[in-house]
Amino acid sequence: MAPQISPSILSADFARLSDEAKAVAGADWLHVDVMDNHFVPNLTLGVPVVESLARATDTPLDCHLMIEAPDRWAPQFVEAGAGSVTFHVEAATAPVRLAREIRAKGARASMALRPATPVEPYEDLLPELDMLLIMTVEPGFGGQAFLDIMLPKIRRTRELISKHGLELWLQVDGGVSAATIEQCADAGADVFVAGSAVYGAADPADAVRALRNQAEAATAKASWACDH
């Protein structure tokens, strides 16, 4: 699969979300960080804003739920217009059931792992998912520095995906920029969330294109991609 770029509106101007969404119209996804001030120490936005964004942009919405009780709330984000919904396995009560419900409602089901959460215990769950998100910072705030100690975890996850022959996207989120995206692609990631690297640029659309070009070049040389 070709690398995909998902700009995070957490770094956008919340007073101009419609315009900010249009500024990255060439992106593959628009990443929407939902925080409840319980699972993470920050509060952002919820279902009504997702509904409004879905009407304001043709770019599909990639909702990352950093919330408690995702089993209860995740389906509502699908109904609000999200094309992909990510829940944190640390917060989910029944992750398989939740993934199946998200899929049944018509969205892609994704599961996120905090930096300290190992992927190996969830190997058997991978076929139930459309995407796995490896957090490369602690969730809760934008603008954090990339944790390069996550690169081995990304590699191990890619190996598990290949081992089972899955069509599973591998997303990274946190500190992704021109300085780090090639490392992530080389390790096995193929969906990249970028916040300040896109919305902090003079031209967000150009930033998306540049990041995609970097990811494509790194993927073309990556050993995991050459094996396919």
From TrEMBL:
User: What Pfam families does this protein's entry cite?
Assistant: Ribul_P_3_epim
Q: Where is the signal peptide?
A: none
Query: Cofactor note, please?
Result: Binds 1 divalent metal cation per subunit.
Positions annotated to bind a divalent metal cation: 31, 33, 64, 173
Q: Does the keyword Transferase apply?
A: no
Q: Which GO terms describe its cellular component?
A: cytoplasm
EC number(s) in its UniProt entry?
A: 5.1.3.1
Co-factor(s): Zn(2+); Mn(2+); a divalent metal cation; Fe(2+)
Q: Mind listing the GO molecular function terms for this protein?
A: D-ribulose-phosphate 3-epimerase activity; metal ion binding
Q: Which reaction does it catalyse?
A: D-ribulose 5-phosphate = D-xylulose 5-phosphate
Which PANTHER family would you find in this protein's record? RIBULOSE-5-PHOSPHATE-3-EPIMERASE
Q: Which family would the database say this protein is a member of?
A: Belongs to the ribulose-phosphate 3-epimerase family.
What NCBIfam families would the database entry show? PRK05581.1-4, rpe
Q: What does this protein do?
A: Catalyzes the reversible epimerization of D-ribulose 5-phosphate to D-xylulose 5-phosphate.
Question: Can you name this protein?
Answer: Ribulose-phosphate 3-epimerase
Q: Which organism is it from?
A: Streptomyces griseoflavus Tu4000
